[in-house]
Amino acid sequence: MTNPVQIIAVGAAAPAWRLPASEVAAAWGRKGGRGQAAACPPDEDVLTLAADAALRALAASGLQTDIVDGLWWGTTRPPFAEGPSHAFLAAAVGLSAKSGGTLCAGSAHAGLDALVSAADAVAAGSARVALVVASDAVIPGPGTAFEERSGAGAVAFVLTNDDGAAAIGARVTRTHPYLDRYRGDQEEQTRDIYDGRLFREEVFLPVMRDLGQQLAALDITAWSLPDPDGRLGAAAAKQLGAGTPASTGVYAALGDTGAAAAMLGAVAALDAAGRVAVVGYGGGRATGVVITADRAVPGAAGLGDILATGRPTTYAEVLRARNVLVPNGETVAMAVPPQSAQLVRGADEILGLLGARCVDCGTINTPPTIHPHCISCGSSKFVLEPIARHGVVHTYVINQTMPAPFQAPLPLAVIDLDDGARVMLQVAGDGATLEIGSEVDLVLRRYAVERGVPVYGYKAAVRPVDPADAAEAASDSPQEA
Ligand SMILES: [Zn+2]
Question: For residue 397, how far is its CA from the centre of ligand 1 (angstroms)?
Fold first, then answer.
């Protein structure tokens, strides 16, 4: 029997910061520290990363988002610990209010749980198009052995029963009831592995050997292998005779991305034909899935740029963003609590980034709820529709002082979008590269955590200027001649 589950597109995302391992080592009086790991600034988390990756995969698929039957999302810690995490992400990526799916959580195995559950739903015919997202931002206990390896990232696959560039095939699971990476209820941070040598010799490597040998019989050309400490991935590959795993470059750039690691490592091999063994580990479970690509999967080639970007950050900055380093003093509460009627009624237009297009004159009014009448013609007949996600800066200001919990500098910009809508939004980052006329993309970001509730909305992200375009512009400019 042929397997009907196909991958038609993939997408990846990483947060803005890269923390050098040497920074963490120095803080704890250790020498060395090799490599770096990705870390979230205050306005990014597992939900914004998931949205970034999902929107890239959906764009690469060429599909309309409203035909996606469900979202399967795997992450160790959903942003609303108990609450509407799945519904918020589904709305943010434009899925229909009728879409289904599953939120998988609780360990780094959650990404594989989401992938195999979605594949089963497509195989069973209960979903024709399934969006699988795995995202994570690992929060280690300060001073733990894996702290400098703890990373963040996201990956998304669009699955269908139609023709795709790759097919999902055999799978193998092994379980071992062992406290690997562990966090107790009501604990903020993830603990160290109690006995690293015991874990390596009696749990991790035997499980990888057993599972890997099953997969290796299937003529695997590339591997995505878990690497929780920077050495175990290479050790597992060596005992399988697997060469350098495809996932190595992702670990080098982003660190251990937890629930996202297995699928993200696979994307590194999906830009060409081949057979990839995708192995995820966590919570005493390991699962391997075989993906056979007939050709490059749309979206996979975008991974290189994502791995190459990011700005260096400091350990203190990361501890502040993780709420480990907390400033003294009062914070100023938002005027509108997240549970209030105004935000509840506006949730769809905020998360779906909707505008109200005037039926009489075509002007797009934003945000819809504060414009009962068209700003151009005064009509009150509107159709709600997603507004453009790209535009140019009309004007901007950079706030140099902000009350906590906001952090200065905080840039605000008025943006003219491609569809004619004009919006005013915060700008991601410190605004150092912001100029009138800058090209921006609108991206979902976390504005604040207010009364224990994460609050999401869109920010403008300045597009990096392509050096080739900049050189061309300079040579075209008469002032430069
Ligand atoms: Zn009008």
Answer: 29
350 Cα: distance to centroid of ligand 1 (angstroms): 21
163 Cα: distance to centroid of ligand 1 (angstroms): 43
What residues are neighbours of ligand 1 (ion), with CB under 5 Å? 358, 360-361, 363, 374, 376-377, 379
Cα(351)–Cα(347) distance, integer angstroms: 6
- All CATH 3.40.47.10 domain ranges in the chain, comma separated: 6-321
**What's the CA-to-centroid distance between 419 and ligand 1, angstroms?**
15
Q: Which two tokens stand for residue 231?
A: 């050495």
Whole-number Å distance, alpha carbon 375 to ligand 1 midpoint, is: 7
The rounded Å distance from CA 346 to ligand 1 centre is 21
Residue-wise burial string across 104-126, b where 16 or more C-beta atoms lie within 10 A, e elsewhere? bbbbbbbbbbbbbbbbbbbeeee
How many angstroms separate the CA atoms of 283 and 76, rounded?
A: 10
286 alpha carbon to ligand 1 midpoint, in Å? 57
Q: What percentage of residues in the chain have a pLDDT greater than 70?
A: 96
- Find the distance separating the first CA and the last CA of the chain, reported in whole Å: 67
What tokens does 98 get? 């009728």
303-322: per-residue pLDDT in tens? 999 999 999 999 999 999 99
Q: For the beta carbon of residue 130, count every other beta carbon within 10 angstroms.
A: 28
pLDDT (0 to 100) of residue 473: 56
Residue 274: closest CA among 226, 218, 233, 236: 218
Tens-digit pLDDT profile for residues 202-261:
999 999 999 999 999 999 999 999 998 889 999 999 999 989 999 999 999 999 999 999
Indicate where the chain has its CATH 2.40.50.840 domain(s): 389-473
Q: What is the dihedral of CA 422, 50, 57, 86, to 10 degrees?
A: -90
Ligand 1 centroid distance, CA of 460 (Å): 26
- Checking if the pLDDT of 480 tops 50, the result is no
Distance 173 CA to ligand 1 centre (A): 58
- Residue recorded with tokens 């400019």: 477
Q: What is the mean pLDDT of the chain?
A: 92
Cα(469)–Cα(333) distance, integer angstroms: 44
CA distance 370 to 83: 27
Determine the topology of domain 6-321 in CATH: Peroxisomal Thiolase; Chain A, domain 1 (3.40.47)
Stronger pLDDT, 146 or 3, i.e. the higher one? 146
Has domain 389-473 been given CATH number 2.40.50.840? Answer: yes
Q: How far apart are CA 88 and CA 45, in angstroms?
A: 13
